[in-house]
């Protein structure tokens, strides 16, 4: 400050002379707030009053025009008030000292409202900071409200353009293949970065190989897909921050809910969805404001500061005791049913009129089916009975509502899978058929009804072996595929549905054309580069169909491709530790055994031994004896 405002220097020297302890870091008796008061605020105020004649105290009234004009005696004041910038206030370990610093600052400005000084604080507003800054005279601006995705996109555009000018490899690639990165890649990159400029810079350096040294042969084009899987390195911060609230009631449910929600909810919406009081949600979140944005008002959703927090909470290996288990989807589905029932009991208007919907009820209407699908394999039998009862009670309030019939059908079908009850399966088919008949070809929801009834009929075919069920399944999936022409993002799902049904018919009738068609459909599904889940399904279905084709023809190319697809499954979807890796290892070993029988390749013997050795290590002890 003395360098910028020389007029403050004598006052600073006097303060140090009077209180030498101000300069000793190990002096426990002098706090940061006191140092600011004696070394910054008091010298600045004295210099301003001596140099301008301006009275900074409110009790003495505002400065006259003449005294303001004399501000030029401190030349820098001619450009406006001075600014002190405090960055990273949340990173200070001593919270009491931070609070004292803020309180001292506020007291100074309260006593000197006209002083030409401003303080800009850049910080995550954690509770010990927010509670002191949330007062008149402080302007709080939430940067989360200013979505930085556009800024990140602009930042990356500049970096990529500059690198293109310098990098002949990129220029040659663009000349041959066109724009790079493509718009879709740019959007994915911006989404993955999640508004962090530091992470954006790190990702860009990785793509360009700045962190790889001279030994890497990968090009920027090779590294871009890998960059989309980069971890921003915040796991330590996440674990440390979450630990602050883990002892509080409902902590696990609240954090898991925030991680698994399909759309953010305000604190009252989270509380309603969980069936607890709002203050209990706030009590947990108030300590987590370094990583979770908790709005000051209840009409703004709770959001994550960075998307990687959701990735962290969704990985048991990374998050440990904070893991948001997929079984939480079951609980969320049940709570969605409960919220919808309660609000329908209060009258149809509360749901048909968006302005009258409570956040949790509005969320339940849209996303309950998503949580059902995510948790369908994780239900316990005891949880399905109340789910069916809630669906029936809600349907009684609104008889004939297709979306409610559909919800009951889905839960009933899952219950049939648990109990093996053919009666439940028959009811699910009947309910799905009722929904489909209510949705004409022009209805945008007809597609989902086609798929639902098709899956239910296919399940019934597996139980009863009814040819009529199988034929209707194929017909339904054909219609669904027609409603998803290329490049529909979910076309791969319809291709796989039809492919699996045709393979079932091949197994029933032996019609080779059905098997050939199934292989073709699964290949097309893979070529569409489906999502991670659909990619695994496509690979697995194609490998099975190719194996069937090899068994029929004994033509080696079918077996070779089946092996290739199984290897891809192991590499991309069933890494070490995955629950399905053992089954995949045994399946691949069986295929390699068949190739050895056909070709007598010596290397296959070693390959088989390696696969069986790993499979043996993964086999539970009870199965080895």
UniProtKB/TrEMBL annotation:
Keywords: Repeat. It comes from the Eukaryota. Gene3D superfamilies: Tetratricopeptide repeat domain. Residues 78-124 form the Nephrocystin 3-like N-terminal domain. PANTHER family: AMELOGENIN (PTHR10039), NACHT DOMAIN-CONTAINING PROTEIN (PTHR10039:SF14). This is Nephrocystin 3-like N-terminal domain-containing protein. It comes from Candolleomyces eurysporus. The lineage of its organism: Eukaryota, Fungi, Dikarya, Basidiomycota, Agaricomycotina.
């Amino acid at each position: 400050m003395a360098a910028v405002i020389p007029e403050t220097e004598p006052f600073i020297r006097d303060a140090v002379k009077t209180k030498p302890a101000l300069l000793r870091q190990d002096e426990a008796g002098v706090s940061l707030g006191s140092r600011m008061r004696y070394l910054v605020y008091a010298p600045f105020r004295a210099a301003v009053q001596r140099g301008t004649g301006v009275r900074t105290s409110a009790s003495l009234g505002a400065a006259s025009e003449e005294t303001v004009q004399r501000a030029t005696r401190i030349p820098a004041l001619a450009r406006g008030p001075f600014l002190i910038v405090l960055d990273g206030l949340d990173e200070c370990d001593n919270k009491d000292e931070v609070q004292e610093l803020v309180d001292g600052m506020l007291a100074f400005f309260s006593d000197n409202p006209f002083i030409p000084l401003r303080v800009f604080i850049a910080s995550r507003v954690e509770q010990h900071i927010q509670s002191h800054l949330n007062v008149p005279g402080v302007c709080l601006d939430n940067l989360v409200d200013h979505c930085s995705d556009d800024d990140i996109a602009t930042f990356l555009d500049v970096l990529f353009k500059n690198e293109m000018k310098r990098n002949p490899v990129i220029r040659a690639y663009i000349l041959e293949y066109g724009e790079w990165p493509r718009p879709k890649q740019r959007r994915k990159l911006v989404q993955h970065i999640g508004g962090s400029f530091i992470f954006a810079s790190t990702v860009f350096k990785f793509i360009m190989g700045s962190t790889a040294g001279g030994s890497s042969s990968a090009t920027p084009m090779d590294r871009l897909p890998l960059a989309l899987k980069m971890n921003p390195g915040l796991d330590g911060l996440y674990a440390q921050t979450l630990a602050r609230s883990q002892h509080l009631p409902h902590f696990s449910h609240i954090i898991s809910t925030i991680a698994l929600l399909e759309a953010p909810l305000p604190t009252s919406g989270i509380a309603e969805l969980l069936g607890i009081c709002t203050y209990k949600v706030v009590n947990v979140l108030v300590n987590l404001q370094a990583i979770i944005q908790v709005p000051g008002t209840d009409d703004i959703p709770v959001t994550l500061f960075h998307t990687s927090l959701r990735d962290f909470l969704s990985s048991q290996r990374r998050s440990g005791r904070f893991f948001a288990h997929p079984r939480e989807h079951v609980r969320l589905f049940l709570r969605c049913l409960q919220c919808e029932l309660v609000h329908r009991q209060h009258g149809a208007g509360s749901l048909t009129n968006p302005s009258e919907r409570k956040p949790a009820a509005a969320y339940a209407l849209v996303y309950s089916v998503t949580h059902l699908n995510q948790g369908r394999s994780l239900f316990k039998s005891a949880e399905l009975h109340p789910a069916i009862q809630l669906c029936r009670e809600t349907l009684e309030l609104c008889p004939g509502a297709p979306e409610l019939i559909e919800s009951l059908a889905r839960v009933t079908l899952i219950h049939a899978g648990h109990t093996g009850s053919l009666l439940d399966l028959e009811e699910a088919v009947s309910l799905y058929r009722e929904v489909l008949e209510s949705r004409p070809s022009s209805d945008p929801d007809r597609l989902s009804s086609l798929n639902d009834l098709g899956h239910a009929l296919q399940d019934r075919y597996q139980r009863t072996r009814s040819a009529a069920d199988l034929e209707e399944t194929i017909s339904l999936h054909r219609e669904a595929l027609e409603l998803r022409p290329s490049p529909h993002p979910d076309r791969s799902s319809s291709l796989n549905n039809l492919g699996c049904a045709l393979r079932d018919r091949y197994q029933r009738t032996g019609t080779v054309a059905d098997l050939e068609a199934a292989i073709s459909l699964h290949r097309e599904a893979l070529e569409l580069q489906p999502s991670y889940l659909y990619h695994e399904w496509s690979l697995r279905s194609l490998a099975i169909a190719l194996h069937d084709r090899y068994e029929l023809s004994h033509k080696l190319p079918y077996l070779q491709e089946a092996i290739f697809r199984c290897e891809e499954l192991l590499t991309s979807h069933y890494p070490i530790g995955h629950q399905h890796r053992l089954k995949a290892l045994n399946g691949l070993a069986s295929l390699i055994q068949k190739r050895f029988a056909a070709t007598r390749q010596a290397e296959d013997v070693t390959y088989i031994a390696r696969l069986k050795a790993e499979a043996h290590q993964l086999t539970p002890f009870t199965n080895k004896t």
